[in-house]
Design goal:
Length: 103
């Protein structure tokens, strides 16, 4: 696992209710996790590891946003919505609450 992810594959698998022996999609899940964290960081305007050096320092709601987006991308791998579809329920609100706003 790259140093980039602030959450672990184990965290996501627990969120998805997958057991440790269900490992056939581990690489795919890790790609989704890295992508979800990257997108959330882009929307926040900062890297999570720069702001929160440890997992424990990361606010629970940001962890939840990463888990929700990762799970949503994993469970909806086919293009089923129009471009510009909203993020999963609550994710945008979490991002807005933690975002660095500039004008």
């Amino acid at each position: 696992m790259p140093d980039y992810s602030i959450l672990t594959l184990k965290d996501v698998k627990a969120h998805l209710a997958l057991t440790a022996d269900q490992d056939e999609d581990d690489m795919l899940i890790q790609i989704k996790l890295d992508g979800a964290q990257g997108m959330i960081e882009r929307l926040l305007g900062y890297r999570l590891r720069d702001r929160f050096e440890t997992f424990d320092a990361l606010p629970a709601e940001l962890r939840e946003a990463i888990l929700q987006l990762t799970a949503w991308w994993y469970e909806n791998r086919e293009a089923v919505a129009d471009r510009g579809a909203p993020l999963p329920f609550g994710v945008q609100d979490i991002i807005d609450a933690h975002r660095d706003w500039t004008f």
